[in-house]
Each structure stands twice: as structure tokens, then as C-alpha cells.
Write a structure and sequence with these properties.
Chain A is an alpha+beta fold. Chain A is built from five helices and five strands; from the N terminus they run ββαβββαααα. Chain A has two domains: 2-72, Beta-grasp domain (Ubiquitin-like (UB roll), Roll), CATH 3.10.20; 73-148, [2Fe-2S]-binding domain (DNA polymerase, domain 1), CATH 1.10.150. A five-stranded mixed sheet of chain A has the order 2-1-5-3-4, with helices on one face. Among the domains of chain B are: 5-52, Uridine Diphospho-n-acetylenolpyruvylglucosamine Reductase, domain 2 (2-Layer Sandwich), CATH 3.30.43.10; 224-323, CO dehydrogenase flavoprotein, C-terminal domain (Enolase-like, domain 1). Chain B contains twelve helices and twelve strands. The chains are: A alpha+beta, B alpha+beta. Bound molecules: flavin-adenine dinucleotide (FAD), iron/sulfur cluster and FE2/S2 (inorganic) cluster (2 copies). Residues 26-34, 36, 51, 71, 98-99, 103, 106-108, 110-112, 114-115, 162-165, 211-212, 238 of chain B line the site of flavin-adenine dinucleotide.
Chain lengths: 149, 324
């Protein structure tokens, strides 16, 4: 597969999740393991530009695909801007959920088919798969709103 | 997670061959339910057959005005499809009310039909559960039963079917197409899921070696349609009660009605009794309430889910009132 634009060979048994493959084999520790059950979004990465939770993805299933983790988002449209605005708008406290939040925000903005800027409610609904235990939600919405308008 | 072998099928014949030839094999769609259940050691296949690359991810318009939805279409792509959004808005609303953006990008239509219950005792290997371990008993009956079914439960199991999509499909008279090495058969969605009875571990009529290839929708019913989901949080939670409805009113009288319920039944629940009560009746709040009561007359509650009977009634009435 390709990870963050580079071809990589990930030789793992079928039970290894994409999340564990990225973290333990490739040393990409940006994606986090929160729940390992698909519920928190901390492990969100992009597969061919679409956001997925890598904890419920088997690495073997993504052979040949283009995976982008937080380590690679700065070169994507919106990627660097989101990173900057998350800092400026207090979009995090402890930072555990942030890599997933930013990958998810990139995916969400790409999914939209309207040119009108998203409303705050729309951003909240679109980001509902990313939990933040620190409750930095207002800053997260501020940052995404800033980038999307 | 236990070890297993992995086979990727590139076409339907290869998938059917693999599921027959490999011992104790299971199809793998988006993995959002199966991978979780394998990690919990509830599902224990020796082989998974990855079907996500099968060429079954299209939405095709049919000559009769209906649509054929490929079983491997992802839930997000189903909800975003222009034909689905314009002609079957209830389907798009149901999908978007479920899970999260990430999960909908992974989850397939076939996997959504086959997803297993969210009963907390099903997930808890210390608890008795007839669905997980036939004959062991049911910890929900006598346990914490707030999320459980009030319609269709048996003495063996009262678990709800968690899908939102299936509730809309039940209302729309969807047909599920199944393929195996023996051939193709078509089953109405309302007959695809089984009542728990004495064998809650058998959840659908799908045979072990059968593949869901498509879901077909007949032309949409006349009038307006809507999917409404009531849950503990505004988003990202399973339904306490959900209602899929399509209603047409002519001269103040209900001329066409489709109604299905989620969150209250052991399977996606088509409300035929309510439909019978409503057809030809004046489109008034009294009729809506009488119809809801007719459907819920047989409801049986456990200690913590009695509220669902009233909640289902008021949600049905509110949805129909809002549409008429
Ligand atoms: C945190 C979380 C929240 C969720 N919230 C909701 C919600 O609110 N509403 C909702 O409706 N759903 C919800 N879901 C469930 C989600 O919709 C399902 O997990 C998903 O639809 C399953 O699809 P999949 O392709 O990932 O299936 P998989 O996990 O790949 O497979 C599930 C089962 O289906 C079988 N299968 C898959 N495809 C086929 C086929 N074509 N033919 C035969 N068998 C097949 C597999 O063998 C397996 O047994 C949630 C899930 C999670 C993890
Ligand atoms: S309700 Fe069904 S799934 Fe839940 S514990 Fe009882 S048997 Fe198991
Ligand atoms: S770790 Fe994947 S969603 Fe929580
Ligand atoms: S910043 Fe701490 S979990 Fe979100």
C-alpha cells in the first residue's frame, strides 16, 4: 500500500488491524487507540481520501490502497490550515483525540457537495464520530468553521 | 484476536467457491461489525472471505421505476446517491441517522442487513445469552432491559435488531437477492430476519454459503416519506424507537400508508396492523393514535423498557401528524 505518499510493504498476519499495523510496524503513532471498537474516532485515517476508523479495518483488506495519517495531512488541501486553526482556536487540550479529529474533518469537508459553508450544527453532526474526553468541542467546531469558510 | 486465514474474492463465483470450500468461513464486508465481534471472541471464523472488491457496488435504475442496490455499496455512498436522495429520501435519512461518517464509509449494505444485536449481555461473556451460547439462558430477562424489544420477544431472547437502514427497507417492501452455488433466490426484507423463538442464534434466512448480492426497491410509494429516530443523544447512538413512514392523503383520507418501526422489535418491524387501521381512515390525530395502539396492543414489556410502548405510540403520532 501507499502510506502518506510513500510505497510501503506491510507484512502482517490477517488479524492485525490497520491501526496496529500503522502504529506498531510502521511507527506512525499519530493515529491513537482509544476504544478499539469503532466508537471514539481517535484512530481515524483517510483511505483514498475517505475517512475510516482504522481499528475496525484489517490491514490486509487495504492492500494497494492509499492511506493518509495525521503525519501526512500537511500536504493535503485543508490539512495544514486545520492544523493551524486547531492550535489558534483551542481545538484541543490533552491532544489525544486531535489526530483523529483533523483526519475526520478533512474527510468530512471532502464529502460535502454544497458550496455553502457548513453550519455549526452540520459540523457537529458530521464530526459526531469523534469523541473528545477533554470537551474541546467548541474549539474544534471553531477551527473547522474557520477553515471551511 | 484468534488467528484465521484471509481470502480475497474478485468476483461472485470466487466468493461462492471460497465460502463453500473453506471450513467455517465468513464473508467480510466493511468489517465494522465482524472485526469487532471477532476481537470480542463472539465470532470465530477460521477463514474470512473479503468481498469488498466484488463488482456489486452500483445503484441501478430499473425499467419498472424501482432501483437495484448492490450489496457491497457503502452506506455513505447509498445515502449520497442522487436517485436515493430524491426518490427514496427515507433511506438516506435512515442511513445518515446511524453510526458515524467514518463507519458509514466502511459499512456495506449487505453487512448492515446482517449486523448483530447490541444487547449488552450478548457482548458480555460472563453473562448467560442464548444468542451467543444457545441454551445458556438470557441475562436480559430479569436483568437490565432498557434497550430491549417490546414486540416479537420470546422467552429465549428479547434483543432488538439495531439497523436503521432495515427499518426503511421494511417500509418500502424491499427485496433481498441471495446467491449460492445452488442458484439465486429473492426474499422480501420483511421475511429475511427471523423472530427469535427458541433459536435466537439463527437471525436470518440466509444459508451459511449464501451471499447477499443486491437489495431491490420497488417504485417509491406515493405521498411524503420520513425517517425519525429517537435516542438518548442527538446523534451517534442506536435507536430507542425509530419510525419509517410514507403517507398519502387524498381529500382528508389516508389513501396510502407504509409504516415500520425500529428499536422496539426483535427484527425490523413492519407495522401491518397500524397500516390496516389507517388505510381509508380520516387523516387525523385520533386515527394515528388508534393505529399506533392497534400495532402496540400485543406489546409485552420487561421491567425497564415499558417506556418504549408509550414512546413508540407518541413518535408514530408525531411523525404522521407532521406529514399530513
Ligand atoms: C460504534 C458503532 C455505532 C453504530 N451505530 C449504528 C446505528 O446507529 N445504526 C445502524 O444501523 N448501525 C450502526 N452501526 C452498525 C453498522 O451499521 C454495521 O456494523 C454495519 O452496517 C455492518 O456492515 P459491514 O459491511 O461493516 O459488515 P461486516 O462487519 O463486514 O459484516 C457483518 C456481517 O455480515 C456478513 N456479511 C457482510 N456482507 C455480506 C453479504 N454481502 N452477504 C452475506 N453476508 C454478509 C458478514 O459475514 C458478517 O457476519 C454502528 C456500528 C458501530 C461500530
Ligand atoms: S436478549 Fe437475546 S442477545 Fe440479549 S442476553 Fe438475552 S438471549 Fe442474549
Ligand atoms: S480506537 Fe478506533 S474508533 Fe476508537
Ligand atoms: S483534547 Fe483531550 S481528548 Fe480531545
Amino acid at each position: 500500500m501507499r502510506v502518506n505518499g510513500e510505497p510501503v510493504v506491510l507484512d502482517v498476519p490477517p488479524q492485525v488491524s490497520l491501526l496496529d499495523g500503522l502504529r506498531d510496524r510502521l511507527g506512525l503513532t499519530g493515529p491513537k487507540k482509544g476504544c478499539d471498537q469503532g466508537a471514539c474516532g481517535a484512530c481515524t485515517v483517510l483511505a483514498d481520501g475517505e475517512r475510516i476508523v482504522s481499528c475496525l479495518a484489517l490491514a490486509v483488506q487495504y492492500e494497494g490502497r492509499e492511506i493518509t495519517t495525521i503525519e501526512g495531512v500537511a500536504s493535503l488541501p485543508d490539512g495544514a490550515a486545520l492544523q493551524r486553526e486547531f492550535i489558534r482556536r483551542d481545538g484541543f487540550q490533552c491532544g489525544f483525540c486531535t489526530s483523529g479529529q483533523i483526519c475526520s474533518a478533512i474527510g468530512m469537508l471532502a464529502e460535502r457537495d454544497s458550496d455553502a459553508p457548513p453550519t455549526r450544527d452540520e459540523i457537529r453532526e458530521g464530526m459526531s464520530g469523534n469523541l473528545c474526553r477533554c470537551g474541546a468541542y467548541n474549539g474544534i467546531v471553531d477551527a473547522i468553521e474557520e477553515v471551511a469558510t | 484476536m484468534r488467528t484465521f486465514s484471509y481470502v480475497r474474492a474478485d468476483d461472485v463465483d470466487a466468493a461462492l467457491r471460497a465460502i463453500t470450500d473453506e471450513p467455517n468461513a465468513k464473508f467480510l464486508g466493511g468489517g465494522t461489525n465482524l472485526v469487532d465481534l471477532m476481537r470480542e471472541d463472539i465470532e470465530r471464523p477460521d477463514t474470512v472471505v473479503d468481498i469488498t472488491r466484488l463488482p456489486l457496488a452500483e445503484v441501478e435504475e430499473l425499467p419498472d421505476g424501482g432501483v437495484r442496490i448492490g450489496a457491497l455499496l457503502r452506506n455513505s455512498h447509498l445515502a449520497a446517491h442522487p436517485v436515493i436522495r430524491s426518490r427514496y429520501p427515507m433511506v438516506a435519512q435512515a442511513v445518515l441517522s446511524g453510526a458515524s461518517g467514518q463507519l458509514r464509509n466502511m459499512a456495506t449494505v449487505g453487512g448492515n442487513l446482517m449486523q448483530r444485536t447490541r444487547c449488552l449481555y450478548f457482548y458480555d461473556d460472563a453473562a448467560a445469552c442464548n444468542k451467543r451460547e444457545p441454551g445458556s439462558g438470557c441475562a436480559a430477562i430479569g436483568g437490565f432491559s432498557r434497550s430491549h424489544a417490546v414486540l416479537g420477544a420470546s422467552a429465549s431472547c428479547a434483543a432488538t435488531h439495531p439497523s436503521d437502514l432495515c427499518v426503511a427497507l421494511a417500509a418500502l417492501d424491499a427485496i433481498v437477492e441471495l446467491r449460492s452455488s445452488r442458484g439465486t433466490r429473492r426474499v422480501p426484507l420483511v421475511d429475511f430476519h427471523r423472530m427469535p423463538g427458541d433459536t435466537p442464534e439463527i437471525e436470518t434466512v440466509l444459508a451459511d454459503d449464501e451471499l447477499i448480492t443486491a437489495v431491490e426497491l420497488p417504485p417509491p410509494p406515493s405521498g411524503v416519506s420520513r425517517y425519525r429516530k429517537v435516542r438518548d443523544r442527538a446523534s451517534y447512538a442506536f435507536a430507542l424507537v425509530s419510525v419509517a413512514a410514507a403517507l398519502d392523503v387524498q381529500d382528508g383520507v389516508v389513501s396510502s400508508i407504509r409504516l415500520a418501526l425500529g428499536g422496539v422489535g426483535t427484527k425490523p418491524w413492519r407495522a401491518y396492523q397500524a397500516e390496516r387501521a389507517l388505510l381509508g381512515a380520516p387523516a387525523t390525530e385520533e386515527s394515528f393514535r388508534a393505529a399506533a395502539r392497534a400495532e402496540l396492543a400485543d406489546a409485552v414489556s420487561l421491567p425497564h423498557n415499558e417506556f418504549k410502548i408509550r414512546l413508540a405510540e407518541s413518535t408514530i403520532v408525531a411523525v404522521l401528524r407532521g406529514m399530513s
